[in-house]
Design a protein that fits this description.
two-stranded antiparallel sheet, 2 domains, Arc Repressor Mutant, subunit A, globular, mainly alpha, 11 helices
Length: 236
């Protein structure tokens, strides 16, 4: 019998578990950009851990560029495009990659995520997508486009894919896109027809995931982002 190389299992640090929970709240938009995290003392009480454990988790979030310390507010979630560092920006080398290429990457990654979500989404995941969609329905009824609710919808779909690599990658990609193209998103969806079409696209993606139709979810997402690429080209 061949000699097996086995590495002892190391228990996960408590601070890493706290980090995972806080990061998920940020990624799911349950703590929105610009909002502060709860004070260390309160988080410590709620999580039943020491304040130093909470502090270590927050420092890790700061190191990732997800939150920043602000005088008088504590740790605040960074807004898209305002993070101290964005690893995707360095990875893509945006001085070489064009915006069109970044959007193509977005289309490929999220379409695949939607397909996976149709297969893997839990009831909780579908509820999160529904809640994000209903927030957009309200915004649309008011005749307004709110980037944050749009990101919430897209991130809910990504979470439902159950692929942690995609979740981390897409969070930073969305921050980059919505930070770099904030003006373009607002201009495109200032038109009522485009705003309603955007909502219809999201409705179709949600319905496909609800019905566990992976192929339809993939195609609906690909068409949706493809329409944005076309509108951006016209707007440019």
């Amino acid at each position: 019998m061949a000699t097996l190389t086995i590495t002892p299992i190391k228990p996960k640090l408590v601070s890493d578990q706290v980090f995972d929970q806080l990061r998920e709240l940020i990624f799911r938009r349950q703590i929105k950009p610009g909002e502060p995290l709860l004070p260390e003392r309160e988080l410590s009480r709620m999580l039943n851990v020491s304040r130093s454990t909470v502090r270590n988790a927050i420092n890790k979030l700061i190191g990732m560029g997800l939150v920043e310390q602000k005088k008088g507010l504590g740790a605040v979630v960074c807004a898209p495009g305002q993070a101290r560092q964005n690893p995707i920006q360095n990875l893509l080398g945006l001085q070489e990659a064009t915006i069109a290429e970044v959007i193509e990457l977005w289309q490929n990654l999220e379409s695949d995520a939607a397909q996976l979500a149709a297969v893997r989404a839990s009831d909780e995941d579908i509820q999160a997508i529904e809640e994000a969609f209903e927030a957009q329905v309200f915004d649309c009824a008011e005749g307004s486009y709110v980037p944050d609710t749009s990101i919430s919808f897209h991130m809910a779909v990504i979470f439902a894919s159950k692929n942690r690599a995609k979740i981390n990658l897409m969070k930073h990609l969305y921050d980059l896109l919505f930070g770099t193209l904030a003006k373009e998103f607002t201009q495109i969806y200032a038109d009522p027809e485009s705003l309603n079409r955007n909502l219809d696209d999201h409705r179709e993606i949600l319905d496909a995931i609800r019905k566990r139709d992976a192929r339809r979810a993939y195609m609906a997402c690909a068409r949706h982002i493809g329409r944005f690429r076309e509108r951006l080209a016209v707007a440019a």
